[in-house]
Amino acid sequence: MATVAVNNEQYNKAKLWEIGFFALNNTATNLYLFIMAFVSYYAAGFAGISVVVVSTILTSMRIFDGITDPIVGFMVDKTDGKFGKFRPFMIIGNIILAGSVLVLFNVTHLLPESFRLLFFILIYAIHIIGYTCQTSVTKAAQTVLTNDPKQRPLFAVFDGVYNTLLFTGGQVYVASFLVKKYGDFTMGLFTELNTLAIILAGVFTVLAVIGISSKDKKEFFGLAEDTVQTKFRDFWPILKNNKPLLKLITAVTVDKLAFSLLRHAVVVVMLFGILIGDYALSGTVSMITIVPTLLITFWAVAKARKTGMKKAFLFSTWIALGTFVVLIGMFMFVDGSTISMSNLGFATILFLVLYTMAMGFGGVPSTLVNPMIADVSDYETSKSGRYVPGMIGTMFSFIDKLITSLAPAIVGFAVALIGFKDAFPTVTDSLTPELKVVTILLAFGIPALALVISGLIMSRYELDDKKMEEIQATIAAKKSKHTTEQKIAN
Question: DSSP string spanning 75-98?
Fold first, then answer.
């Protein structure tokens, strides 16, 4: 067991490459999250499902995703076999994800029209189950990866780098290459995009399995006891009595809703393709913001290691809020069409600076959330002695998905109110006053309100750096006592 003595505590430390490899598990599932952001265009354009129905389905599936989370989390906590607690769910989940995407995009539009909607819902539901299996591990396995308060935030460095490259590189790939190559969201575009995503996600999952393999063992599970005896009804007492969990869930979910809207494929089209008038610019801007965003992530993790993750979370939230407010004012009074890489005037430079800060600082809370969930899980272990990272992680996911499930519904109904009932706005649509207002509201207005709520809640979060040192000391003492009692009993 790799441990190090710190302030008379025994910390389980991971090798740097193990943290880096395991972080790819989240990247693998985010690849599917990215490509499924374009499923609206497939469903409406090829499967013949109306805009409002598609938005309703995606919202319902997001809620279904949340419902499956506690079930899978409960199963994770009950699992302790030859291949560990976490690795089986990673592998099975990725296989389901790959298979469901292949079937969904290649079969649905070929079926008789009367069966398409039902088939789409069924395959999408299977996709959600696979997604839940793999994503639940990202949060739960943080507890075994490392419990050193100074090392745990390092996961956020790798996760932040990978996701920045994924979402920015992915947007460039779609907007600047695929859309230009195929002319629009065609079947050829979906086939090329999905094939690449499936291959990369498979490779990332294998590397993540390797990264967690040495820690996916009983000796690293909480107090190193046998599988915790819990019942499904224990979810409510854990949620009700774990105040840091409640606050973290609420703060992060509203924050994620903000960025679910900003990153929504339709909103990106509305912002760059219609309001600014250059959809390819979304890819260019994404490339420009990569380095600054990564630097912001590195700074935030360094701050988290020095002062605790709570302070880094709060500082980043308030900075992001300020930039969103300024962006709203900017687009209310500045003509979006003046923003262009061929016209590097004041408006373009201001937009690039503000958008970079919004994406960079706004992404920090979501980047820190996985190690913070591990803190909450350790808090539960120190308080009650129960090691239930699967239940805690998936409780977070359940509520997170209930809230963020509103994103496609908000977008769908917002554009339907201004006349887009049968098809989503595309790069070929002209800017109208109504479309401008809705775009600003979806891209910047609602996210700003969400960040206000997130910051106010997080300011009362209990688990700062000093509290986490106390928690690890408590767990170490309980673990030592349990080990001694076992030796005496034997």
Answer: HHHH--BTTBSSHHHHHHHHHHHH
With H, G, I as helix, E, B as strand and everything else as coil, classify residue 221.
Answer: coil
Q: CA geometry: angle at 420 spanning 409 and 434, to 5°? A: 95
Residue 242 CA to residue 372 CA, distance in Å, equals: 14
Give the residues across from 343 on adjacent strands: 340
CA dihedral defined by 88, 91, 93, 99, rounded to 10 degrees? -140
Q: Find all residues with CB under 8 Å of 467, minimum gap 6, and list them.
A: none
**CA distances (Å), origin 459, targets 202, 314, 357, 456:** 39, 7, 21, 5
CB–CB of 425/266 below 8 Å? yes
CA atoms within 13 Å, Cβ hemisphere of 63: 10
Residue in the structure block whose two tokens are 């994770």 = 76
User: Quick one: tokens of 133?
Assistant: 């299996």
Q: Which two tokens stand for residue 486?
A: 């076992």
- What is the residue-level pLDDT of the chain in tens, covering all 490 positions? 444 444 444 577 888 899 999 999 999 999 999 998 888 888 888 888 877 788 788 778 877 877 887 788 888 877 776 788 888 999 999 999 999 999 999 998 888 888 888 999 999 999 999 998 998 888 888 778 887 777 888 888 898 889 888 887 887 888 778 888 888 888 889 999 999 999 999 999 999 999 998 887 766 665 555 555 666 666 777 777 788 888 888 888 888 888 888 888 889 889 998 898 888 888 788 778 888 988 998 898 888 888 888 888 999 999 999 999 999 999 998 888 888 888 788 889 999 999 999 988 988 888 888 788 888 888 888 877 777 777 787 777 777 777 777 787 788 888 888 888 777 888 888 888 888 999 999 999 988 998 999 999 998 888 887 887 788 777 777 766 666 665 665 5
SS3 5: strand
Q: Are strands 3-6 and 9-12 parallel, antiparallel or unpaired?
A: antiparallel
Note the Cα 122 to chain centre separation in Å.
24
List CB contacts of 76: < 8 A, sequence separation 6 or more: 85, 86, 89, 136, 137, 140, 389, 390, 394
Helix (H) or strand (E) holding 124: helix 113-140
Amino acid (one-letter) located at 250 = T
- What would the CATH number be for the domain defined by 13-222+233-489? 1.20.1250.20
Residue 233 Cα distances to 74, 223, 250, 374, angstroms? 10, 22, 21, 22
245: which 2 tokens?
């969990």
C-alpha span between 148 and 152 (Å, rounded): 6
